[in-house]
Amino acid sequence: MTDGIDTIQKPEFAVMVGIIVLVLGSLIIPLFYRSQRLTGITALLFLAVGAIFLSVSGVSVLISGPTEVRTLLTIPVIGLPIAAKIDYLSAFYLVFTPILALLACVYSIPYLSVYQGHHTARHYPFWCLLLAGSVIILVAWDALLFIVGWEVLGLSSYFLITYLRNQPSVLRAGFRYLVASHAGTACLFVATLILFQFSEAHSLRFDHIRSVFENLSRRGDGWVHTILALLFIGLGTKAALFPFGFWLPEGYPLAPSATGALLASTETKLAVYGFVRLFVGAVPLMPALTVWGQTVAIFGALTLSIGTVTAFVQTDSRRLLSFYVIGQVGYMILAIGMGLTLLQINPALATVAIAAGLFHMLNNAIYKSLLFLTAGSIFFHSGERDLGRVSGLMTVTPVVGWCAIVGSLAIAGVPPLNGFSSKWLIFADGLTAGRTMPLFSLLTVVAIFISAVTLGSFLKFTGTAFLGQVHPPTVSTRARMPLSMQTVQLTLALICIIIGLIPAGIVSGLYQVVASLLPENYTPPVERVLGEHPVAVALNVAGVPVAVWNPLPITLWGFIGLALSYVLYKMFRPARRTSPVWQCGSLAPPSLGRYHVHGYYQPFKDFLSFRIGRHKVRTTNRLAIDPSSPVSHIPGPLDFGRIYSSVISLGRQWCEALTRINIGVPYVYLIWMLLGLIGVIVLLYVLSLR
Amino acid sequence: MIGLSILQVVLTFAGSPLLDGFVRKYIKAKLAHSRVGPLTGPWQTYIDLIKLLGKEDLIIEGAPYLPQILIPLAALGSVLVGSLLVPISGVAPLGQGGDMIVFIYCMGAGIVSVILAALSAGSPYAHAGAIREVCLHLIVEPVLFVALLSAVVLSQSLRFEDQLMWHLSQGFSLPMLIGAVALFAALQAQFGKLPFDIPEAEQEIVGGLFTEMSGPRLALFRLFFLSRQFVFACLLCTVFLPWGLTDIPILNLLTTVVKVFVVYCLIGLLDALLPRLRIDQALRFYLTVLLTAAVGAVLAYLAA
User: A338 with A295: CB under 8 angstroms?
Assistant: First the structure.
């Protein structure tokens, strides 16, 4: 009896139940297809139960320590064990991923009613499956189960992206997503096969992979580099790293915003998990890791620059956010790359860098969900995705307006919000590490510049859609936004503020999470690196703080300044009057004088383009206004999407050529069968000779 | 430390209009323009501000109400934090709370609130001004960072106090000089004075950011820009030109104010003599400054 209770209380059990609930949910939800409302409520129920189990298991692992490695089954013929384990890193993800998915689902139930003619019974099963796939990735302790989870995730997000499948552009983008996703998985799979080939223990468990790498590196670096390159491409495709990330800005904008929030808080974030899990947790400390660390960091910086600069010129709200998914992943990958490089040079700074990457990932998951949901609110109220066609929503829904401001300031890194805390840590670490590796200073300065560009884009996002006068006038006559949608956004905005105000606990926790992946006592204790202060984060080098960030006093003084300026404002009791916008004395309606979103930052866009001889290079193309038109953001030769699709279409042509054999005449079949028989006999004869 | 904080805040908010008034009267009107006008003296800026504080406050109809009121107030809060992060007297009162990155982002937050307030009015002129401000900010912020990068590399710390102490103990260094020049160039844009008052540009976009600001809110924004000028000038005068600082904070405060006064005079002179640049010219100018600052940073790496 006590055994039974012990089992039930174990976190593995809770995760198991969570996965089973989610899978069951995906099977049961379609049964309620008659009522859209019932479908939504069932989905919410299953997701809520699943999410509670998963989060509870995550919390219990964070408190009581990692679980044992469990061998779930052994694949008979090759004797390959399939193992699972929840360690601190998995637990960290398990805590927040299901909750964010649940919040997005609460929002999506009223939101999806905007899309008439699309049945939600085709949508919610894949939410459950996506979450189940994510959890499989998180608890997998061997490469094969990891890939299985990866596939579940990829396939279910394909169906989520192609929910509005009556438009051809959606199917096209979905197809490209599918191809890219599988190309990535194929890379992972090939890497796994190579590892299995060299594995003496005949096992793909992560701890065994480490010893495989150790053996391989003794023989020379050729195989090691091949495997790491394959892993990099495989994970980089899912993380939407430049140039493998072409699928993301095509796919995400076409999904409903709530789904975009779900995808943005799971898919690319799990790729970051993959980077940490495989590159830090499964690769031993060896010279090849330093090389790949620098590569990863450079690709991270490239990704964040290109993603953000492309987002800078977007006017479609969802597409802007999708490019920011890429841009923000760049920060995390940059930080992780810096960490990988520094692991063998300065373990303390390396651990901080990886922890900073994970912290930024957490923050980004939160504010990116929030921003996708506010973009959804724009669509809910106006039926528009183009920022140029709607403004002044703040007057219609003040709560959402303030949430949008909080989210925008958080992604732009305005203190004291959460986005600033993690960016601060990345920048401080990069600049401190820059003394030994000047490359990192350069990359950090690039990231700092890009952070300012982010600010510009999000001032555009809130400035056009939420501030100013209401436009079009029909917006204010539409139905009010349901309370549940507003509550979700408010919750996310509050989380942004709270994490921003007390980052120290999370940062030191993440430091310990990363340290637990490394050999024991490899990194100095957390107090010596990040300080002992309960609220402030400090970066110590040799016991001396070189960078500090203490949000509470800073915010307090900011509020004192705010109060003082309010006193000044009220000092002479000025009269107050409302007046129309001044339009040079003309009596035109305000809508005529609106500043159009396409004209935003034109001087800077021109500044970014330059000439080589006679040829003018525009780094920021003026994009087509039609949101369904394909995106051209990558120079031709680097557009992997084009390469992938051309390979696929070649394959399709061959298959079509093969089908010409089938012309429906029985004699031709007989001839083929005869030829085949002869072929088989010859083959058997040749084989018997050996 | 609390006393020092209060002194520093008072100096920032009360001292900066006085400095501005002095420059307006003696540098711009008398020295450069040889004007004989009804400027009452260094007090003129005070008089302007107080008069504006008592005037009618116009709220734009149809635009969200709260952002128009609340966001301008946040701007001053950010400058207050910024002023406490700079070691004006050799020690930063909030030095344990934030470093160089925090400082730059806090000052950036002030600009963000100005821009949000301008955008919330919905006026096309305010939009044009806001866009110019963002474009300028996009290039000036990296200049600030790269200029300070030399200090970071040489002093091996991101904290202003450590950088100041390093500079005091090491004496003259070429990368810091280049950094100072770059920071001085960036200062002009941060001051919002000619030739870089592009976001306001009264003759073109009728005040730009401030088109729809009136009465007390305009006064607050004026005060925001004035105090911001003071804080940035203090940064230049402490981290990059720390000479003359001693162990006595009050004395240091006076030394810094004298140095800041010289910086104000120089910028005032440039303001009086130079015409306004176009935004694209300004961007190109700051690109050159950025590259110069980068040379300084490279030299710092070689020296370290």
Answer: no
